[in-house]
Amino acid sequence: MTIEGKTFPYKRKLTALFSLAEQVLGEDFSNVVVSVNFVSSEEIQKLNNEFRKIDKKTDVLSFPNLNKTTTQKLAEFQNEVYDGQLFLGDIVICKDVARAQAKEYGHSMKREICFLALHGLLHLLGYDHIEKDDEKLMQKTADEILNKFGVLR
To answer: Residue 93: which of 43, 52, 18, 53 has the closest Cα?
Structure first.
């Protein structure tokens, strides 16, 4: 997977995390591109208001490029490949909110950033948490990947 965007200093960590997610999910990310950007509280609040009509800051937003469900594999989207790459979507993370949440939950900033990036990636892959069963599946999947990655609560 190729990660584009403003990810310093987390690019190597997120690349490794997403590689592990690829294995756990049984996907092929070899031609997949995702954009990850870190933004200010003001910027994420603006995006949240513009796209979700919620005028407050949040921790992470995802903007999927594909209309994928959890049961579909990325291989089914070959008609969306352009120049040999499949653009999965955008993940936007607010470092200020992440820092506050890491402190509130009593874990490291590294763990919080990994959780938020993975949460965003799972949304891009069709996972959601609107319905209780979907939320359980998403949380179980995230926990499995994060535990294997070694970033525990």
So the answer is: 43
- pTM here is 0.94
Q: 89: how many CB neighbours lie within 10 A of its CB?
A: 18
C-alpha separations of 24 from 20, 104, 149, 151 in Å? 6, 29, 11, 15
In whole angstroms, what is the distance from residue 79 CA to residue 66 CA?
11
Please give the tally of structural domains in the chain.
1
- What is the residue range of 33's domain? 2-149
For position 119, which CATH number holds? 3.40.390.30
Sheet with 86-94, edge to edge strand ranges: 2-4, 32-39, 86-94, 60-64
Q: What is the pLDDT of residues 106-124, one digit of tens each?
A: 999 999 999 999 999 999 9
